[in-house]
Amino acid sequence: MNMKKTTAAVSLAAILAGTLAGQAFAANGFQDLKGVPQATQIETLRERGIVQGVKDGIFAPKETLTVAEGITLIVNSLRDRLGLETVKLAGPNATFPKVSNQAWYAYSFSIAGYKAFGLPENIDPNRPITKEEYVFYLQQAIEATGQYPLIKIYINITDGDSLTTSYQGAIQRSLIMKISELDSAGNFNPKAVLTRAEAAQYAYNAMTYVETRKSLEEELAKDPFEAEAQLTGGSAIYRIVKGLEMSFAAIDFNVVPTPNELFPNVSNDAFYADALVVAHGHGVELPKTFDPSKALTREEFTFYLQQALEKSRHYPLIKLVPAPIADENDITPEYQGAIQRALNKGIISLNKDGEFLPKEFITQQEATDLLQKAVDYAAAHPDTGIVAE
Predict the structure, then answer these.
(1) Global pTM?
(2) What is the rounded distance in angstroms from the CA atom of residue 285 to the CA atom of residue 189?
(3) I want to staple 186 with a disulfide (CB 3.0 to 4.6 A). Which of 158, 214, 320, 342 is the partner?
(4) What is the pLDDT of residues 312-324, one digit of tens each?
């Protein structure tokens, strides 16, 4: 439920200053964090003005967290990426009747409503907050800062039946992003009331995540479509995987590898990273030394495209009579079979001189045209479901 902007506004600086009124500021660090596993993260949040103590020098890490404290912590930890610089909002009481417009946490609830964290209208700011609630609101806040590349896997939660149904998707994404975690028995413990230390850890994880990872929009902005520009490897695999609708769902991974484990030259945070894992999982023969920034040749792109088409679907094997290619001697031997099959399927064609020009770099427009032909072929030839022997 998005709150609409109004003219009865309060400034961000004033309200953030006001949020400190309910808690004490510890100028020299907290004195009650000895032996607390989250101590380093809590001190980092303190140094950045994100958390305060219950009184000077005291953080009270084992005390339970209230809804008001939780929402304020979420907003403060992500405020630099929530785009609040020019936001002016009225008090939250019109949307959340139990939240006073004069409360120290009022602005945080205004932001939570405006940015659609998913808070119910009848939320009580003074009651303790459960783990599933806090993680749900935190995950919604993360996603309000931008869309991030995410491996589409399912994490088994031993006590998953105890999760509130509407929270399940956000909690899955939180676990994948490593914002939250399961215990040693694989339980999420959704109904447990969070401590201040636990909540601070999750807020720190969220803050670090959004600060160290570029959103999908930011990543894709680095790789705009330019018809005559050369197509790089990372972008090529991303487009092939998306175009052919390849996914993790069809791959039997015992443990999903990270992109960098498979390909040392690939950053796990790149927008094309998960696509490389998907392609690898389907059997596309990407070399371990795959360089995502390197421009692809026509033979490389055709090889990857043809393999993706064949290994993400089941088509009967046909013995082909090789078509004559004038510059066949220029084709890398291990690519020849895939190129012949691509010719047979009408995905690629030769020029007027009967040449394929395998070593020429492929342009984005050429690659787009070939990918569309592959997509059209897949649409016209449904998967037989029979594995070729």
Answers:
(1) 0.59
(2) 41
(3) 158
(4) 887 877 788 899 9
